[in-house]
Amino acid sequence: MGVPKSYGVERMAQPSNFLSDSKKRSQTTVAILVYSWKDINDLISCTKMYNVSSVPPSIIWNSPSVELKWSRPMCGHCEVKGKKCRLKNNSTEIECFNLSKNTKGITAKLVTIGSILGSFLLALAGFALYRVYSYDTIEKENQARIEKFLEDYRALKPTRYSYADVKRITNQLTEKIGQGAYGTVFKGKLSNEIHVAVKILNSSKGNGEEFINEVGTMGRIHHVNVVRLVGFCADGFRRALVYEFLPNNSLDKFISSVDSSHFLGWDKLQDIALGIAKGIEYLHQGCDQRILHFDIKPHNILLDHSFNPKISDFGLAKLCSKDQSAVSMTTARGTMGYIAPEVFSRNFGNVSSKSDVYSFGIMLLEMVGGRNNVNVTVTTNEIYFPEWIYNLLEQKEDLRVFVENNGDAKIAKILAIVGLWCIQWHPVDRPSMKVVVQMLEGEGNKLTMPPNPFASIGPTTINPGMPARRLNQELEVIPESD
């Protein structure tokens, strides 16, 4: 303990005649301790090893002075053994003794628990830092990618808004009018009283590709049957698209049942079909680059105040040159029920603009039948819906849709025949959108029935009056690298 061999001397004054004089016996014995400050500090740092219960009076009173000495015990050989040392029976002999087993066990457990807990907390902190760093790095890369694209895009028309502008336009995102896989749509109003639809993109989905697709394609499109992009927002990880507002919602709200109160009438349905066809033809042939939409369906056809159709949602669109007959894709894209067979499997042919033709054909058949082709509640005893329509036409049966006169029946038949031409299994057997427009504008009696698009999947015996079964068409997915 760093104790010097001699700490000091205690001198004690004893009064005369201490034992004979009762008066003097009451006097207090005073001990005068003489130490240096260094001795005192060393003494304070000592550890008590044992107690002295009493000191014989003869030692104190028969000597003019008492000298107390402390010696440093030699504990080295005990410490080597992992033990402690002490004076044996108040003598100068040194003995070693073991620490309490309970104390050692508790200490070991505490050390073990502390080590494990410390390692876990350290690993957790490291993992958290890694995730934060990785997310921050990826997000910064995405932001840099978008900023570079917007820098090149500066010359085009749509306005760039800050996120504060978006919140102001939408009145703090209060009026929600739609929800999709990639974002939420809110109604808003610009300062000049023009209403807009603002789509707030989900930051957790994608790497900014949908944003770039939407802005990159819609910013260069100017057609009466395509939704106009008013502006966009790219404020850090917050991204939004600002479109013109169309008050009559989407087409799927008006084709769920032809005999419902929402039925628009066959003349209007034909106008809508023709407008959509013209819009898709413009995407394929009217721009500097061909735009393949890959998600044509009623939900993505919006209607203005006069029920004129406008194609929207270009998040899955792909650009290619006009002289490019096929495009390569790493994965299938689109909505189940509207995806062309070749998008799933290249055994049917190459992916091209004919893939949009297929989706358009499915949508036409839905408009005719007043039902949704994608119906998860359909039982297995029902036939594939487009095949049912084909069988009705082939056997010259009534389409059994809501018609009031021969003119309505003629329009329904035209839409059905054009739709069946568009859904031929192989892309080479489908018409281009230019031909589709001509078919819809022409006389119905000049249209011929297409080949049976379902013949390749085996013959069927169908009662046109009551669909007999549903054909399960499972297509092998063959990915193709860029």
UniProtKB/TrEMBL annotation:
Mode of membrane association: Single-pass type I membrane protein
Segments traversing the membrane: 110-133
Signal sequence extent: none
UniProt keyword DNA-binding present: no
Binding sites annotated in the UniProt record for ATP: K199
Cell membrane is among the record's keywords: no
Predominant localisation class: membrane
One Pfam entry name: Pkinase
Keywords tagged on the record: ATP-binding, Glycoprotein, Kinase, Membrane, Nucleotide-binding, Serine/threonine-protein kinase, Signal, Transferase, Transmembrane, Transmembrane helix
Localization (cell): Membrane
Residues annotated as domain Protein kinase: 171-455
UniProt GO cellular component terms: membrane
GO MF term set: ATP binding; protein serine/threonine kinase activity
Family to which this protein belongs: Belongs to the protein kinase superfamily.
Protein name: Protein kinase domain-containing protein
Source organism of the structure: Fagus sylvatica
Taxonomic lineage: Eukaryota, Viridiplantae, Streptophyta, Embryophyta, Tracheophyta
